[in-house]
Amino acid sequence: MALPTLRPADEAADGPGQARGPARCVADRVIAIANQKGGVGKTTTAINLGTALAAIGRRVLIIDLDAQGNASTGLGIDRGARGTGTYGLLFGDTSVAEAARATEIPNLWVVPSTADLSGAEVELVSAAGREFRLKSALGEPIAEAYDYVLIDCPPALGLLTLNAMVAADRVLVPLQCEFYALEGLSFLMRTIERVRKGLNPDLDIDGIVLTMFDKRNKLSEMVACDVRQHLGDKVFQTVIPRNVRISEAPSHGKPVLLYDLQCAGSRAYVHLAGEVLRREARAAA
Ligand code: ADP
Ligand code: MG
Question: Which of 37, 156, 212, 238 has its CA 20 to 30 A from that of 20?
Answer without folding.
Answer: 238
